[in-house]
Amino acid sequence: MNSDTSATSALSRRGFLKTSTLALGAAGLAAANSVEAAPWFSPGRNLITKDEVILFQGDSITDAGRSRDKEKTTAPNNQPGSGNGYAWLAAAELLVDRPDDGLRIFNRGISGHKVFQLAERWQADCLNLKPDLLSILIGVNDIWHSLDPRLNYKGTVEIYERDYHALVERTKRALPKTRLVVCEPFVLRCGAVTDKWFPEFDHYRAAARRVADKHHATFVPFQAMFDVAVQFAPPEHWAGDGVHPSPSGAALMAHFWVKAVSGKQ
Amino acid sequence: MNSDTSATSALSRRGFLKTSTLALGAAGLAAANSVEAAPWFSPGRNLITKDEVILFQGDSITDAGRSRDKEKTTAPNNQPGSGNGYAWLAAAELLVDRPDDGLRIFNRGISGHKVFQLAERWQADCLNLKPDLLSILIGVNDIWHSLDPRLNYKGTVEIYERDYHALVERTKRALPKTRLVVCEPFVLRCGAVTDKWFPEFDHYRAAARRVADKHHATFVPFQAMFDVAVQFAPPEHWAGDGVHPSPSGAALMAHFWVKAVSGKQ
Lengths: 265, 265
Prior knowledge:
Two copies of one chain form a homodimer.
Chain A: H1 7-24, H2 26-33, E1 53-58, H3 60-63, H4 70-74, H5 79-82, H6 86-97, E2 104-107, H7 115-120, H8 122-125, E3 133-137, H9 140-147, H10 157-174, E4 179-183, H11 200-214, E5 218-220, H12 222-229, H13 235-238, H14 247-262
Helix pairs in contact in A: 1-2, 6-14, 10-11
């Protein structure tokens, strides 16, 4: 849900469609039918216009095996540089949808990263790219690495939220016009994801949501999405180890990410 | 492109949005921005309402390894029975989008099939299921098997079109209210797809388009989609052998299939 899309503005949107329908008959009615709301998802406004730079940031879920080759990393819109995950699939949907719009899409996710590691490389891997739209998916390692005593990582949800706020504040100071998408961290209940993740993981999700709300970012509710998806296929189908999406999981994420940034239900 | 969506009605749709925008200010403007048209894709009207049966029919591209287990085949909305291709990914997008809408989605694609083989099993695998929405993707084997002398298949584009028309006529007689989606057969220029496929393959695509137009079906332009997609990743990325989509190819197909049947740009 987008923090800009309160219940009131959602109602206004329906009102807009209803008004159009009354004025315009069958064509309007078809349009109104096509925006039937999913019960768990409220799209934001359209966030992308022509000739813009879109940047995906995050951890291994965003990285998804992208090339580190300098040429591939520097050039926008290429598959090796974009990996094989949701970021590439979302990029492909946008690019194939709008091949003439001059979009330049980059991926700078790095496997294993937590918020403080994004901060360490933020100048080179975000601010220098001057994204018009910045999408961040971070958090699963912030909890996962704290649960593994071998890694000796002392993170907490408070540190995650504090660092995440600071990262966004820094971004807004440097790039005040950049639109922000905060993706909800998610897990599937299988593989590496055991009971010991809960309820702590829910607190990380809530913290990401607070970051989105505070900074008027579009929030993409991936956990809510996967909670519905497991009604139709087991958790392992969407993410074998509970953390890293399968091709089907990544495709579903791409679909809802594009819906969220396109302002469509 | 939908045969119902002529250039005129596409203009009317833009007119509808423009009118709303003038009347409703910023909210309308955001909505108008979000329906910027892809140059190769015109969505149809919204084809799916609550409590409907959706059936995917076709060959291996639709089949995509679906279970033949009777329980899995009989139950709607399950992954093993739906395979791992575009049909499952499209089903998952719809189901997760609309979990409370009572949609029942089936896949009856069978690997290797041509139009006449759909006809042989149409009563059991289509008519008995009484789909409200029927989506067909067929044609690649109709040409492919005719190109392989070992298979001794004497099909032609005329036979393909005649049989395809007859299949749709039969469906309309039995199920006059069923909405039809005709998917464009497609190939990528790699793997098994050599120069000898052309220009013959283009004639099969044109025949599928005529079937769609004659029967007022929604046409999903998959070849047009992949022709744009190869600007951003090589043909092998989308379909290693030129015929069977990769997970990325299937995800892209699912995205545009859902757009086509949802009446959205």
